Amino acid sequence: MVDLRSDTVTRPSLGMRRAMAEAVVGDDVFGDDPTVNALEARVAELFGHEAALFAPSGSMANQIALQLVTPAGGELLAGADAHVVTYELGAAAAIGGISTRTWPAVGAGLDAGQIAGMIRPRGYPSLPTAAIAVEQTHNLGGGGVVPLATLRSLREAADEAGVSLHCDGARLWHAHVADGVPLAEYGALFDTLSVCLSKGLGAPVGSLVVGSAERVARARVIRKRMGGGMRQTGILAAAGDYALTHNVDRLAEDHARAAKLAAALSKFGVVDPDDVRTNLVPVDLGATSIDAPTLAAEAAKRDVHIAAMLPHLARVVFHLDVDDNGLDQAITVLSEILDRSR
Ligand SMILES: Cc1ncc(COP(=O)(O)O)c(C=O)c1O
User: Fold this and answer.
1) pLDDT by residue (tens digit) across 206-224?
2) Which residues, in sequence order, are bridge partners of residue 308?
3) What is the pTM (predicted TM-score) of this model?
4) Distance 153 CA to ligand 1 centre (A)
């Protein structure tokens, strides 16, 4: 069976499990876990920030960061198709008391000028914008990469208006590998970042909030309040450390397989290969006679598992547990179904 539903389905390798078993641990709520402390220091340094905090999930890391940059009752700007808007179940409002205003769903195709124009200045009685959240790479945007120039323009606009910039960098590693932008360069553009070790890098659990020492100290308190204070977490941090050492550069293989699938399916008019930049392949079935849930169900009968994201949109995701045989099987099965649905 080939599981292409998400890059979160990976299972820890033997080497990773060994590193987990051998991890030196302590009680991380007391700050005593050396393996967690080392991972946090490593990730902070990678992004050129002062500190980082290990969190159980990308959603929690995002929500901690949003509370850092947006006070309760404050306004966040984000894309209508952002993970923080669509898949975090209203957490920004329910937990952080944050009011979110969205720009249209454009995936990674942000218009920095349009977003800058949405920033509301301080001054009673309107609600001033406190922060802007950007997703890199963009999940619902088919793994698209926001260009560096756009991010720089947004940073300038944010500085001018005195608002913070957060990066939902669940797959920032993928953008780094696809475009060759150094992680520290991304780090320098954002006040806070969240990054995930469990998407494509093969760790079973784990994300980090990255930022200044002051912000990360506050993040530690918010994490505890949200129930995310964990004890002998070094077992998990060891998996993350192993993932960073062994599984970042190899993301290029996933990107190459995604590009091959996109090229193979392009003849059915469901994928534009130019849109496929990283490990996600969005399959737009709008012009076919099959919908996404049916395509996913038909493919699953033949042991190829993909995700139905929207009625007309399926998603195929490459990760470290899919090899060239898996790619070939996916091309064969999906091509046969799409051929019948023209
Ligand atoms: C862009 C993005 N941000 C955040 C998350 C949340 O991560 P988690 O599932 O660990 O909460 C995901 C999950 O897939 C994601 O794709």
Assistant:
1) 999 999 999 999 999 999 9
2) 314
3) 0.97
4) 25
**Contact in structure between 84 and 227 (CB atoms under 8 Å):** no
Look at domain 250-340 and name its CATH class: alpha beta
Across the strands, what pairs with 211? 51
Closest atom of ligand 1 relative to the 138 alpha carbon: 1
Closest CA to 178 of 220, 217, 142: 142
Record the tokens describing residue 71, joined without a space. Answer: 């006070």
pLDDT digits (tens, 9 = 90+) for 32-89: 999 999 999 999 999 999 999 999 999 999 999 999 999 999 999 999 999 999 999 9
- What CATH number does domain 14-246 carry, 3.40.640.10, 3.20.20.150, 1.20.58.1610, 3.30.1180.10? 3.40.640.10
Q: Is the CB of 200 under 6 A from ligand 1?
A: no
User: Which regions of the chain carry the CATH code 3.90.1150.10?
Assistant: 250-340
160 contact partners, CB below 8 Å, separation of at least 6: 116
Cβ of 278 closer than 6 Å to ligand 1, yes or no, is: no
Residue type at 276 in one-letter notation: V
